[in-house]
Structure prediction request, 548 residues.
Amino acid sequence: MAVDVNELDIFERPASTGIQSIENGTPVLRALVQAKGPLSLTAIATATGMAPGKAHKYLASYIRAGLVTQNESGGRYDLGPFALELGVAAMRRIDVMEIAQAAMDELRNLLGYTVSLALWANHGPTIMRIAETPDIMSLTVRFGTVMPLLTSSFGRIFAAYLDRRITQNMIQAELADPKGLAAQAGLKTFADVEKMLAQFRARRMSVAENLSTPGRAALAAPIFDHNNRIVAAIAVVSMQGRLDLDADSRPARELANTARKLSQRLGAALDQIP
Amino acid sequence: MAVDVNELDIFERPASTGIQSIENGTPVLRALVQAKGPLSLTAIATATGMAPGKAHKYLASYIRAGLVTQNESGGRYDLGPFALELGVAAMRRIDVMEIAQAAMDELRNLLGYTVSLALWANHGPTIMRIAETPDIMSLTVRFGTVMPLLTSSFGRIFAAYLDRRITQNMIQAELADPKGLAAQAGLKTFADVEKMLAQFRARRMSVAENLSTPGRAALAAPIFDHNNRIVAAIAVVSMQGRLDLDADSRPARELANTARKLSQRLGAALDQIP
DNA sequence: AAATCTGTTACGGATTACGTAACGACTTTC
DNA sequence: GAAAGTCGTTACGTAATCCGTAACAGATTT
Prediction:
């Protein structure tokens, strides 16, 4: 009534017809999500800009829906059992590989380097997805390849974040060969390994140059799930000398950014990871 | 207009005033939760008893809220990123999960068996955390799985300690099938169930062997909160024959020890529990 | 090419939600 | 100890919303 319809069509999106109350109610849920614990009615009201009476009505219905609970009667509000159920259902559908695909393509386009994704299979980090550059001198990053633990960027980032019990035997095996790749990389004892991995943890990123594949350089970053455990790693791969491995380099920053976003979409709480 | 207000007050609960659309919309979310994957509009419409046009409007708003996503335009509907956010936020409020993680890892390292944690959600014991062994023959204990009440170690320990009013219907349902898992386990009447649960209560631990999952054996122990009510259960899982289920076995003792510590950290008074 | 699906949108009438303000219950203040 | 300030909750009338029916465009099938 107050506003001309044509003006609305210009400035606001037509926004295919929906149910307004659904959208008006979500700020209430958002407020509860962002708060670490229970909230009072007035706190919710101020956080959402609603009048207390209005917020109360939404809360009453959310309680009946199970999305919200209230401590006794008259107490503070918090997320309810259905919120948990909803989240569990959502988590079960999320597949790292699915959501990683688009992010990998983006990163590849942004940087112009080959980007690949590895999961931890029983025998080590296994390359599962590749976003290649159209470069002629294409790097042979092949699907299904199992990378070494101590001498590849993928292996190193998994070694840095996986439970040591899982990696113990593999580390031992790679250290055992006095002329192996690990030894060539200057890794001879567990202390050497631990020192290296600590650096990668601090940086939340691993580096490998001219090791498992001659002339190759790579950066890898971890992807965590809702349990804050590493579930995958994403790497930027190129030729030695053509990829800046510094922590402040553009590839490093963008890679870290992409990995962080993916972790967040998986429900990780990155501020709680060592 | 159609119905006398006084009649309504008698038969329906006054139900403190809320927002009807919020409650009318939840069946849409429920349908998506219960489905294992994406659903078409018509599938949602039939599942909720709504007309397609109506369901579409709710979905449009849920999409804008982030609770639902749609595969491209015109595709099927599924839970969205905000559903995940909601769930992660809800999970974070559950103290047990925070403190259980480290204890589970410890127990896994100590025993060499897979350890998992379940909470009671609306539909039964739901697996929320897993600490896996690096074994190649990894058991497929999957996040979010809802376990049966009478034929899983998780279900049994919850059944033993939860208020019977909560479990009554589920027990009845599982007993109803004369060829179901419960019947195969020798459970036919409520008396059978009560006898079994009494044993688990006495031992403060439940057992399941070769039941809901063929070839699997598991021990589960309850975790109580400051109200001395069961809030979670922790289980040691392995293959049949590879896990000693005796009360005096090392796995049983260590599991009981871990569960006791967790209960104490939650403020339980274990000596007052039947 | 007609027919049946799909997902999506339009329209009028009945229902619903919003804003304001009041209500008890409790705590703080003077 | 009374008054004034919280808090969560509820009532009321008007304006805006939602519901049901039905049509629309697009894709696939018959």
Remarks:
- The mean pLDDT of chain A is 89.
- Residues 1, 19-21, 40-42, 52-53, 56, 60, 73-75 of chain A lie near DNA strand D (CB under 10 Å from a C1').
